[in-house]
Fold these 2 entries.
Entry 1:
Amino acid sequence: MRIVVLTGAGISAESGLSTFRDPDGVWMKMDPIKLATPEAFAADPELVQGFYNARRAQLREVEPNAAHLALARLEKELGRDFMLVTQNVDDLHERGGSREVVHMHGQLRQAWCRACDARVEWNDDLSSATACPECGAAGHMRPDIVWFGEMPYRMEEIMRTLDTCDLFVAIGTSGAVYPAAGFVEIAANAGAETLELNLQPSDGTVFFDSHRHGPATEIVPAFVDEILGPA
Ligand code: OAD
């Protein structure tokens, strides 16, 4: 059985990272237009760098949870029949043991030099003065995050895999942001079963064949146990 899993902020919530659209979510307190667009970066780079610097620093204070670990087990057992696509820019899937993670919205722990196009691992703060370790140019480094209005990464590969999967599972995502919100319909149209694992019905809940609602740390390990048998 070929499985594609799409994760969103809800899978990292119990690790202590805020989601975006829940009552205490990031975009309920801050304006995404002023922080997560190319225009915002052009207008006030230090504000945008500061926002992502704080989120990058926060990664040091959190650990992967049982849901991240369960998906790593699924990958280990299914190998090439499994694809993990995440909208999350944290590194909790990797730290939970996942080896191949498609970060369609980029990664906090990666910086992108707009002068030479290099992408480099980055664990410290970025600023308008930061020099690129590859080309040496200063003032061209940005977080390697896909902002609103930019094209998510690896879309062709994701679309191809959605077209041939048997089961599509969305975990901890509100279904509010496209193109990820449309993956369920693409997989369903190609003949896959679809399953939603979320704290509550998402915006796109009607598009799924079946649903399990509850905290990710409970429902994700239970789902993986059903597929593979108990660990
Ligand atoms: P959202 O904040 O929009 O949705 C999080 C979902 O997780 C909601 O449906 C919650 O009900 C659910 N949830 C919360 N706690 C949970 C838990 N413990 N267990 C299971 N589910 C839980 O986050 P995303 O859908 O990931 O983009 O947001 C999509 C994109 O919008 C993000 O990647 C980000 C944002 O703008 C960028 O930054 C580029």
Entry 2:
Amino acid sequence: MGEKTILITGANGEIGHGLISHFAEHDGIKVVALDLNTLDEETRSKCYKTYTGDILDNRFLESLSTGHDFDVIYHLAALLSTRAERQPTIAHKVNVDGTMNLLEMAITQSRLQGKEVKLIYPSSIAVYGLPDAGAKGRAGKVGEDQWAEPRTMYGINKLYCERLGKYYMNFYRQLDAQPMEGKVDFRCVRFPGLISAVTLPTGGTSDFAPEMLHHAAKGETYNCFVREDTRIPFMAMPDGVSALLRLEAAPREKLSTQVYNVGSFSPSAAELKRYVLKAFPSASINFVPDLKRQAILDSWPADVDDSLARNDWGWKPEYDMARAFDEYLIPGVSKLYKK
Ligand code: AKB
């Protein structure tokens, strides 16, 4: 089998670390990692090449593209929902213009290489926007085409970029006299909140779950910024990484759409606290809701219908909530913070 070159943007983030570790265990894969910040030594050692640079810098992207033939681009770089709400202009630039730049790079690469280039894109449950808690309760598991009325800058950015990806794949330069030579194979998963045992997210609104766990493991008091009854879907990081890999590997003819929900477990904040306390009985966790961040969470669905992903490419999470805590999260955070 020939070598495969994979570009990962936002490589320093939580998903980036997971993907890089996965690829490091497989022969024939050259990972080119890109982030605004320098990667740590251990992560760098797992990559073929690493770059510190900005996805908004077109000259930098051009030189990157000239130096490598990418088969797949995992475009992970983004500002998450809370940070995007505080810096909407920057969020729009990074989340939307940055994605446009990567789609353009994929088209150019495809034209030059004479073959399709895959662009794998993590979207989010933030694309949904339920009007109130009553509607959220009645909606149950939300399908891809329901309630796509985001109320955050991040959710709007993600929804728009999903559509940009579909456009680049299906209609790009549709008025040109000659058919376009380059082709992007755009594939996207809408992630729930992700929980990792080894890294803490920054700037998200689903961060209350990983923060609760990591604070408990460190022996620090945690004032959780949501109500106890807050319920949104979550997923253990290994399943998040595996969802992206499985979607990338799926035969194109099996895919009936380009954008897929992926679900796993859907606890309330109170249930999360119970699981955390089981492992760290002396943890101090209080609920001190921040009403503005709460309103964002109340607009996100309590659960997602991921039957399309299950039927089309065999999506099935390995970790339900009990297994996620017992076999991955608790052993992982305990090791991470062991003195
Ligand atoms: C966030 O909270 O912004 C992210 C997400 C749900 O996409 N974790």
